[in-house]
Write a structure and sequence with these properties.
345 residues; alpha/beta; Rossmann fold; 2 domains; 6-stranded parallel sheet; 12 strands; 14% strand; globular; disordered N terminus
Length: 345
């Protein structure tokens, strides 16, 4: 059966949907409102999401999808296209902008293929979404919502990440083993940012924030980070000169989510963990330098964004070519004031 766009009105014909997930954790979290809208609009359809392994972890326990498929980058993604041909999906929704994602769903033989008409891939899509210049200047959540607007008409609902009881219990056990209880004021610090060093505030200043919060509020501070960010986390612990729970490089994505869910708030750079915290309903003090909070800021109203004006910001560069003045202008007391505002609410 070959479907065309006019047949979208009869949603009973759409029985199997494939969603291509973004390749960055933060982007995948910001795509949740679009994904939840697809679920609401096609309540009885079988929805499968496919993405890189660490991205797929985000969707475990999620009611928005029925099945999770993983693939590796490079040729592994294209091989997945051929392997999906026998699945007989009715529609594919492409959240990434890449040519490769469009080629994947074309190789899978999926009749309806919806995504932005950009990066030279328009001929691979038969439900292309026009890329209005204004769309590139809206928040990333709206950028993704625009993809599904014409095919998913259900009202927008609050979307979030989900944890199992066992995952929450394991996180509490980890805290207990480190003499931290749910009654403590638990504050997370996320000093990394995968995109590049221009998004990272100084580790020594994070360390001073941690020591100030520990002394002033008797807070229990957890330092998060990936395996590649272990050196940054260790520098924070050295600077703080007091016991911190350093979990950098010690958690999976799911483990990170569970520990963040135990925090009262998280102090963080613009990063995937920042968006994870917001999607779990945890307030954040978000530090912005080279990027724009109007485009990628934390979703919700209970957050504090710290950004200082600089003539060169936002530059969106991975590495600062000069003196990182946008970050240098942010001081320890700026962060402490942000934390205090959240604690007083």
């Amino acid at each position: 059966m070959v479907l065309d766009a006019s047949e979208m009105e009869n949603k009973t014909r759409i029985n199997k949907i494939l969603i291509i997930a973004p390749n960055w954790i933060g982007d995948a979290v910001l795509a949740l409102p679009a994904i939840s809208r697809i679920r609401k609009s096609f309540p009885i359809a079988m929805i499968t999401i496919i993405g890189l392994p660490h991205i797929c972890e985000l969707f475990q326990e999620s009611p928005y999808v029925d099945e999770i498929r993983m693939y590796k980058g490079g040729m592994g993604g294209l091989a997945a296209g051929f392997s999906l041909r026998s699945e007989k999906f009715d529609m594919a929704i492409l959240l990434p902008n890449s040519f490769r994602s469009a080629l994947l769903v074309r190789l899978a033989g999926i009749p309806l293929r919806c995504g932005y008409n950009r990066d030279g891939r328009g001929f691979l899509l038969n439900m292309p979404v026009r890329l209005d210049p204004q769309i590139t200047r809206v928040h990333q959540t709206d950028y993704y919502r625009n993809i599904v607007r014409s095919i998913a008409s259900s009202p927008l609902t609050k979307s979030q990440l989900f944890l199992s009881q066992d995952e929450t219990r394991q996180a509490l056990n980890t805290l207990n083993e480190n003499h931290i209880t749910p009654d403590d004021l638990i504050i997370g610090i996320n000093p990394g940012a995968t995109y590049g060093s221009s998004k990272r505030w100084y580790p020594e200043r994070f360390g001073h924030v941690a020591s100030t919060l520990s002394k002033r509020y008797h807070a229990k501070v957890i330092v998060f980070g990936s395996h590649k960010e272990m050196d940054i986390a260790e520098e924070i612990v050295r600077t703080a000169e007091m016991p911190l729970l350093n979990m950098a490089g010690k958690t999976s994505v799911r483990g990170l989510m569970a520990l963040i869910s135990c925090c009262r708030l998280v102090v963080t750079n613009d990063s995937g963990p920042m968006h994870i915290a917001a999607a779990l309903g945890i307030p954040v003090v978000a530090i912005f330098g080279s990027t724009d909070p109007l485009l990628t800021g934390p979703v919700g109203t209970n957050h504090i964004v710290i950004k200082k004006e600089a003539s060169c910001s936002p530059c969106f560069l991975r590495k600062c070519p000069t003196d990182l003045r946008c970050m240098d202008a942010i001081h320890v007391e700026d962060i402490i004031e942000g934390v205090e505002k959240i604690l007083k609410r």
